[in-house]
Amino acid sequence: MSQYIIKGGTPLTGEVSIGGAKNAALGIIAAAIMADDSVTIENIPDVRDINVLLDALTELGVRVQRINRHTVKINATKINSFRADSEAIRKIRGSYYLIGALLGKYHHAEVALPGGCSIGSRPIDQHEKGFQALGATTEKKHGLVFADAEKLTGNHIYLDISSVGATINIMLASVLATGQTVIENPAKEPHVVDVASFLNSMGANIKGAGTDVIRIKGVEKLHGTTYSIIPDQIEAGTFMMAAAITHGDIVLKNVIPKHLEVISAKLMEMGAEIEESGDSLRVRAGKELSGVNVKTFPYPGFPTDMQPQTTTVLATCTGTSVVTESVFESRFKYVDELSRMGAEIMIEGNTAVIKGPKSLTGATVSAPDLRAGAALVLAGLAAEGYTVVEQIEYIERGYEDFEKKMMELGAVMAKIEQGNERAIKKFKLKTA
Ligand code: UD1
């Protein structure tokens, strides 16, 4: 196990290149097993959750060939199992896309119930409702979801909640169904659109992804394709918040500024300057920033996956801020750790009241989940003195080379083995 040690107080400057979107890649990799030929996927992030899913494909008999660090060729013509139930797959959330993909193509799936970050109850009832509307039966037993269908037939599905996972899963299960499927109240996140574009590039007929209604006309088969995944909105947003909390000046390369508009708008409201130019975005936060109110919502609202990073920045801003989490029920667990660094945050239900400005001070803290882990790193970058962030396996689930990218921007930090006191001493001597 590893941990980060960080010496705070250096403004981040320079350029950082943003990788492919993890949450799009999870859907796209699962979708790739539905093709009758080889599929090449580019701009795949090299992060743990993705590698776990790729390993799970191998266990199903899928040929997975790494062309290079970010390009993978997938050939699923010799699939020989419909069961994904390794110890690793049980821990990731994106495994649920194998249910939709296997059901859609083979009418049978046995997949471990999804894990993922512990940020609320995270049921999959809307996924199941969608599969059932298409004619499948679903059953949960022995920790697995079993989905079966004699035949899948298009239907009209109204989602009670705009769920990202359910929207993508229903698209997967219906692309090869007979007739038309209509999904009302779907999620509109950029990665939903990216999965739909990928499926269309394999010959699917999906219209309306990114709008209030998605229409899918079933096709007979899906063919091979070469496809490049969109940049990761949340990785980009995390670096934007890192620039803000360190009063830095950074340029993000390889982003889609449109996907970042809501984050840019909040940063500007806080007093940061944002400049957009083609596929890059400059974030400058020279002066003191002011507190703002934030409420998370499905896209195009403020992303829940940016909530911990934003709350952390707000702890250092002047005035009182209120952050309301309306997507997940318990996503403020990291606040206790932030308090140990000097933040003044009160939680009432799904609302955090943040009293700023507070000068954060270094401490040993533990990442409770992926995005909150990243938030604690941001806190460490701004804090006076040394911060140790433990349990960084969570961060590595979704951020590629996180510490390297931060260090290229001037962050003073290192990745060391957990409990290696000598390495901590050495880092402190070097950075004193
Ligand atoms: C995905 C993302 C996650 C992000 C979230 C919201 C992946 C692997 N994960 O998670 O990073 O935070 O979208 O943008 O892509 N819900 C139900 N029933 C369901 C499905 C969802 O009640 O069947 C509820 C959830 O508990 C939650 C809300 O709907 O309160 C949104 O969840 P959803 O959009 O499905 O998130 P995930 O797909 O789990």
Would you identify the regions where 5 or more consecutive residues have pLDDT less than 50?
none
Shape: globular
CATH topology assignment of the largest domain: UDP-n-acetylglucosamine1-carboxyvinyl-transferase, Chain
Query: With helices defined by DSSP (H or I, 4 residues minimum), what is the helix count?
Result: 14
Q: Which hetero ligands occur in this complex?
A: uridine-diphosphate-N-acetylglucosamine
Strand content: 25-35%
The CATH superfamily of the largest domain appears as Enolpyruvate transferase domain
> Percent helix among the residues?
25-40%
What average pLDDT do the residues reach? 96
Q: Compute the gyration radius: what is it? A: 22 Å
Biggest sheet details: 4 strands, mixed
Strand order of the largest sheet: 22-23-1-24
Whole-number count of domains? 2
Distance between the termini: 26 Å
Q: From the 3D coordinates, which CATH architecture of the largest domain would you assign?
A: Alpha-beta prism
Please report the total strand number as a whole number.
Answer: 24
Name the structural class: alpha/beta
CATH class of the largest domain: Alpha Beta
